[in-house]
Amino acid sequence: MTLVLASRSAGRRAMLENAGLTFASDAANVDEDAVKGALRAERAPVERAAEALAELKARRVSPRHPGCLVLGADSMLECEGRWFDKAPTMAQARAQLLALSGREHRLVTSAVLVRDEQRIWHHTAVARLTMRPLSEAFLDSYLEAIGGLALSSVGCYQVEGRGLQLFASIQGDFYAIVGLPMVELLGQLRTLGELPS
Amino acid sequence: MTLVLASRSAGRRAMLENAGLTFASDAANVDEDAVKGALRAERAPVERAAEALAELKARRVSPRHPGCLVLGADSMLECEGRWFDKAPTMAQARAQLLALSGREHRLVTSAVLVRDEQRIWHHTAVARLTMRPLSEAFLDSYLEAIGGLALSSVGCYQVEGRGLQLFASIQGDFYAIVGLPMVELLGQLRTLGELPS
Questions:
Q1: Domain spanning A3-191, CATH architecture
Q2: Residue A99 half-sphere exposure, CB side, CA atoms within 13 Å?
Q3: Residue A147: partners with Cβ closer than 8 Å, 6 or more residues away
Q4: Do the chains contact at A183 and B169, CB–CB below 8 Å?
Q5: Which end of chain A is less crowded, N or C, counting CB atoms within 10 A of the terminal residue's CB?
Q6: 3-state secondary structure A164-186
Q7: Which of A107, A122, A118 is nearest to A158 (CA)?
Q8: Phi, psi torsion values for B34, nearest 5 degrees
Q9: Which of B74, B85, B140, B173 is labelled catalytic?
Q10: How much is the pTM?
C-alpha cells in the first residue's frame, strides 16, 4: 500500500486505520478561504467546491510522493445557499447553530485520489440533516457541555457525540458526515490493486 | 432522567453515553433462540422478531424499575429469507460470511421503551448492505486479522472496523447497523420530557 493521506483530520486518519489500511500522512497547506471565495464568486455549487478543495489538497503534496496514491478530502456544509465554516469563537459557534436551527442543511464530503499530480478518482457523498428548533436555553447548555469541541467541526456540532441531540432527522450517506466516503474509497483501492479482494 | 438500558451491549451503552444521556443498565435474561424459533415457526417478518425481542428484554426488567423508562433493543440480520445469529465458532463465522458473500442482506434494529410493563414507544430501523463476492483467500486473511471479534456481532463483521472492506454498498439507516435508532430515540425522550429541548 502506497497511500498518503493529505489531511490533518484525526477523524479521517482513524477511519482509515479502523478499516485496516496502511498509509502515511502528509497534510497540505492550502488557503481554503481563498479557494472558497473564488468558487463562491463564480457561483459554484457546494459539491464542486468540496471536490476542488479535496483535489487541491492531494495535488499539493503529490510531488513529494512520486508514484504514490495521495488522498485528499474536504467536507462542506450548505444551508439555504449559505456555506458554513468552522467557527473561530464560541459566540460565532452559537450564531451558526442558531442559523441552522429548525432548518435542513447538507453536508457534502468529497474525496479525490491523485497519483503523480494526475487525478485518477473522485467521489462526492451527500447527507441531509434537519436540525430541530433549538431553544436558547438548550443552546447555552449544549455549548457549555461541549466547550471547545464546538470549534472543531464545520457545523459546530458532533453527530458522533452530544451533537446528535440537535437533530430531528439525518438522511443520506452517513459517510458524508464522518468525512470520507469509505465504501467507495475502499472499492477504488481494490480496483487499483492496492487492497486485496 | 430515569432511563434503564436493558441490554448488555457495550456499543449501545457507549452510544447513549456519547449522546450525553444519563442512564442505568440492567440487562435482561431472555432465551432469544426460543423466541426466534417460535416467531420463525409462525413466519413472522424479521422486523417483527426484532421488535418482539426488544420489547421482551425491556418488559423482563421493568418490574425491577417502577416508574422508569426501560429501553430494550435488538438487531437481526436477514438474507434471502434466512435469519443469521452470532456465530459460536470461527468455522461457523467463515460459513456465514460465505453465505452473505455477493448478496444483499438487511440489518434490522428495533428499540422499545417500556414503563411499568407497558410499551409506550417503539421504532424499527432498516439498513441494506451488499457484501461483495469474497475470495477464500481474502476471507481467511480477514478472519485471521479480526480473530474473536468475528464472534461478537450478528453478521460476523464489524462495519466500524475492518469489516468495512467486505462491502460493495451500504444504504438505509446507518443507526440500524450500529444498533440503536438514536435520532428517533432522542426525539421520543424529548417528547416524554426526559431530555431538554
A1: Alpha-Beta Complex (3.90)
A2: 19
A3: none
A4: yes
A5: N
A6: HHHEEEEEECHHHHHCCCHHHHH
A7: A107
A8: -65, -45
A9: B74
A10: 0.92
Other C-beta atoms closer than 10 Å to the C-beta of B43 total 7
Cα distance between residue A106 and residue B40, in whole Å: 41
Which residues does chain B have within 8 Å of residue A181's beta carbon, measured at their own beta carbons?
none
Buried residues in A116-139 as b, exposed as e (16+ CB within 10 A)? eeebebbbbbbbebbbbebeeebb
Q: Which of A26, A31, A33, A74 is catalytic?
A: A74
Smallest CA-to-CA distance from B166 within B134, B141, B136, B127 is with B134
pLDDT truncated to tens, each residue of chain B (197 aa)? 599 999 999 999 999 999 999 999 999 899 999 999 999 999 999 999 999 999 999 999 999 999 999 999 999 999 999 999 899 999 999 999 999 999 999 999 999 999 999 999 999 999 999 999 999 999 999 999 999 999 988 888 888 899 999 999 999 999 999 999 999 999 999 999 999 88
Cβ–Cβ of A168/B161 closer than 8 Å?
no
Going from N- to C-terminal start, the domains of chain A cover: 3-191
CA-to-CA dists, residue B145 to A18, A41, A174, B11, B163, angstroms: 12, 49, 26, 21, 10
Cβ within 8 Å, pair A20-B161: yes
Interface test with B, best of A128, A134, A173, A174 (most B CBs within 10 A): A174
- Cβ-in-10-Å burial (0-12, 13-18, 19+) of B34 comes to exposed
- Between A and B, how many residue pairs show a Cβ–Cβ distance under 8 A? 65
CB contact under 8 A, A187 and B195: no
Residue with the three cell numbers 460459513:
B95
